[in-house]
What we know:
By secondary structure, the protein is of the alpha+beta class. It has helices at 4-17, 33-44, 53-56, 58-62, 106-109, 111-124, 143-150, 196-200, 218-224, 231-234, 246-249, 252-261, 273-276, 280-285, 288-295, 304-319, 325-331, 337-348, 356-367, 373-388, and strands spanning 22-27, 73-80, 132-136, 154-155, 161-162, 170-177, 206-208, 211-212.
Amino acid sequence: MTDAHxxxxxxxSKARELGFDDCRICSATPPEAREREAFQRWLDTGMNGxxxxxxxxxxxxxxxxxxxxxxxxIVVVRKDYAASRxxxxxxxxxxxxxxxxxxxxYHESLRAPLQALQDAVxxxxxxxxAKALWYVDTGPLLEHSYSQRSGIGWTGKHxxxxxxxxxxxxxxxxxxxxxxxPPDTPATNHCGTCTRCIDAxxxxxxxxxxxxxxxRCISYLTIEHKxxxxxxxxxxxxxxxxxxxxxxxxxxxxxxxEERDGPRPPAESQRAPNIEALILDDVLKLPDDxxxxxxxxxxxxxxxxxxxxxxxxxxxxxxxxxxxxEGVAMCIEHDExxxxxxAAWALGGYGGTERAxxxxxxxxxxxxxxxxxxxxxxxxxxxxxxxxxx
Length: 390
Ligand code: SF4
Ligand code: SF4
């Protein structure tokens, strides 16, 4: 009969063979009480925003055995993604998205290797009764807790998993299994007295070490949040139209990795050249169905054309970006009120520039036909802002 150490070794070899950058194992016992309590406090204070799936799966996240009583071990894998950007124009999508978005959707690209790893776990099991189930990102697990426990990486003050040698630009995925496997050594925390991520966050979303208020986080606002973005946060998106990497960019462990290993741009096979070089004006001018078909298969499909336009309008307005003024002006006629409201806000941002007269003309002309109260209000506010800067 094969020993559990041999099975664990074979699982790790298989994970490497399948292209994962690391594979470690921990027990499936619940996260520590302090982690579970912190998670519950996060939910109780509404910091998950509209990400209701955290609430729905909170029992399993607090203890995976409440959902899978058979779970004994968790195989945790790390898959590195691009830590540097390819050379692209500054107004391109590729320059305005989080790095992980510069590739095919990882939920899709990791599906086959994770399924193969799950199959391998079952094939290596000494009995046919064994169970295994893979997850990436969306699983009902406090995955950073298992990442730390398995030694893949510790949870940084920005709440992401990171490693002294490999930094934090990586995806985590797990295979939950009924096999009792020998655990690896947990990772130790090396944040020390550093507060760079907290200090650099433009929206003050890291409200204290290890706690993010998602409702203020650019990643949440630009990707998950479906409604209008709060006015006080609109000019703090820091140029991002999808996701945000600021807290990772400033992290000394990412800086050291790059100094040591050099840039790590996206693999050619993973790139989505159709979208990464699109400029902001294209995003605003393309019909939604055309834009949606370009986004298909990339992480940006989660946001979709309408919300990507909302985000782009807010960034264009905050930057008074004249290169996409035409696109901004076009969006005041968009079918979706969410886009028209953002377009009105963006047009109001051109106050003090030579585009202000044109912005005022567009807003005044649309004001006569706008029926949505929120958009009418946004138009009035934008006209007032333009008048104040005239
Ligand atoms: S992703 Fe951006 S907004 Fe969110 S916590 Fe990090 S720096 Fe702040
Ligand atoms: S920036 Fe500093 S505090 Fe934040 S995760 Fe990195 S090491 Fe930890």
